[in-house]
UniProtKB/TrEMBL annotation:
Domain-related comment: Possesses an unusual extended V-shaped dimeric structure with each monomer consisting of three distinct domains arranged along a curved 'spinal' alpha-helix. The N-terminal catalytic domain specifically recognizes the glutamate moiety of the substrate. The second domain is the NADPH-binding domain, and the third C-terminal domain is responsible for dimerization.
Subunit structure: Homodimer.
Name the record gives this protein: Glutamyl-tRNA reductase
Keyword NADP part of the UniProt annotation: yes
Pathway stated in the Swiss-Prot or TrEMBL entry: Porphyrin-containing compound metabolism; protoporphyrin-IX biosynthesis; 5-aminolevulinate from L-glutamyl-tRNA(Glu): step 1/2
InterPro entries the UniProt entry points to: 4pyrrol_synth_GluRdtase, 4pyrrol_synth_GluRdtase_dimer, 4pyrrol_synth_GluRdtase_N, GluRdtase_CS, GluRdtase_dimer_dom_sf, GluRdtase_N_sf, NAD(P)-bd_dom_sf, Shikm_DH/Glu-tRNA_Rdtase
GO biological process, one term: protoporphyrinogen IX biosynthetic process from glutamate
EC number in record: 1.2.1.70
Source organism per UniProt: Enterovibrio norvegicus
Glutamyl-tRNA reductase N-terminal domain sequence ranges: 6-154
Protein's gene: hemA
Pfam families: GlutR_dimer, GlutR_N, Shikimate_DH
Length: 419
């Protein structure tokens, strides 16, 4: 039995091909059912995200050919286009890859935490469809433990490496708790939506969204229980905001020095954090000159992000060593399993031999045979039968000049090393 990983990701394939290879939720269930019913693999899990599609499986064949053919047919793909982007990993390399993926070491953003949840969800789907068992199931359980260890023992996920997350982290550094803070978010694009998500995850529940059109802001504002105002209404609500984060496509500043100055007076000079992540700027540069107004621009955040990326890279070195150690340990367990069946068979054969000879001996005693003679015959026959196979193996190894096998046999039988 061999572990196999086959897949494509953001490093090997274009978005166009990744879209064609991706599995929708329904396709995923159909695919797992096919893998199982058609016996393409013995056990399998499919991880499919916007950045990767990977099949983790146990197979009788070390060659990935059967799985590649199945994937190509399932998605009706051009074989040349697919093959040029595929990568495969076997056994320890497969275990190591899964652990790296779940720990965020193979992600587009180093150390991002979402992938672990996606891997857990993929595993749950396979469990639900009874498509996973044996060593592969053990590997996924081990992987979840490894990912937790990486998060606990390294700082790979502790620093913001996106502008949106950096903005939220900055707010958390300045305000002791975001639970009592009010955030005014200006704009309704992807970055502001991410900012809202991060703020909400850190218990900020008072959010105001200002946008040119209320309709554009409504979907994500509703998701976070945010109030919606127009850009023209910002001056009326500015004093409510402890945190102002702005990211629009406006050609001229939306928030001026005078507007912030009035808001600070109304706030009785309670501090206000303003983060401008727009290019061109949404907030006048002069705002930074005001007492109690702390203005950060996108350049400030980029420097934070870059510094944090370097810190994550340093943490990744330790994380990689953890993954290496754990993948070696898992393969040691895998190899030990290979001996289990042999040990069971050897023990069963020995027990059967003992029972057979004991039965004959008891019958001989019942027939009145001399007990001493019965015991001698039992011990001689048992000894001869038990040593026959290893004796034959040592003779064969000696005749073939196979010193390594001969030494292994001597060691396994507890014999002294040959001089």
């Amino acid at each position: 039995m061999s572990l196999l990983v086959l897949g494509i990701n953001h490093k090997t394939a274009t978005v166009d091909l990744r879209e064609k290879v991706a599995f929708s939720p329904q396709q995923l269930r159909d695919a797992l059912s096919q893998l199982k019913s058609q016996q393409v693999v013995q056990s399998g899990v499919i991880v499919s995200t916007c950045n990767r599609t990977e099949i983790y499986c146990e197979t009788d064949h070390p060659s990935p050919g059967n799985v590649v053919d199945w994937l190509q047919q399932f998605h009706n793909l051009d074989s040349d286009a697919l093959l040029s982007c595929l990568y495969t990993y076997h056994d320890q390399a497969a275990a190591q890859h899964l652990m790296r993926v779940a720990s965020g070491l193979d992600s587009l953003v180093l150390g991002e935490p979402q992938i672990l949840g996606q891997v857990k969800q993929a595993y749950a789907e396979s469990v639900d469809l009874e498509a996973i068992n044996g060593p592969l199931e053990r590997l996924f359980h081990k992987t979840f433990t490894v990912a937790k260890r990486v998060r606990t023992e390294t700082d790979i996920g502790g620093n913001a490496v996106s502008v949106a997350f950096a903005a939220c982290s900055l707010a958390r550094q300045i305000f002791e708790s975001l639970e009592t803070s009010t955030a005014l978010l200006v704009g309704a694009g992807e970055t502001i939506e991410l900012v809202a998500k991060h703020l909400y995850e850190h218990n900020c529940r008072k959010i105001i969204v200002a946008n040119r059109t209320r309709e554009r802001a409504k979907p994500f504002a509703d998701a976070f229980g945010a109030d919606i105002i127009s850009l023209e209404e910002i001056p009326e609500h500015m004093h409510r905001a402890d945190i102002v984060i702005s990211s629009t496509a406006a050609p001229l500043p939306i928030i001026g020095k005078g507007m912030v100055e009035k808001a600070l007076k109304a706030r009785r000079h309670q501090p206000m954090l303003l983060i401008d992540i727009a290019v061109p700027r949404d907030i006048e540069e002069g705002v930074g000159e005001l007492n109690d107004a702390y203005l950060y621009t996108v350049d400030d955040l980029q420097s934070i992000v870059e510094r944090n990326r370097e810190q994550r890279k340093a943490a990744a070195v330790k994380a990689e060593s953890i993954v290496d150690e754990e993948s070696v340990g898992f393969m040691t367990w895998m190899r030990s399993r290979d001996a289990v069946d042999s040990i069971k068979q050897y023990r069963a054969d020995s027990e059967a031999l003992k029972d057979e000879l004991l039965s004959r001996s008891l019958q001989a005693l019942a027939n009145g045979t001399d007990p001493e003679k019965v015991l001698k015959e039992l011990s001689n026959k048992l000894t001869n039968k038990l040593i026959h196979a290893p004796t034959q193996a040592m003779q064969d190894a000696a005749r073939n000049g196979d010193e390594r096998t001969l030494d292994t046999l001597r060691q396994s039988l507890g014999l002294d090393p040959q001089k």
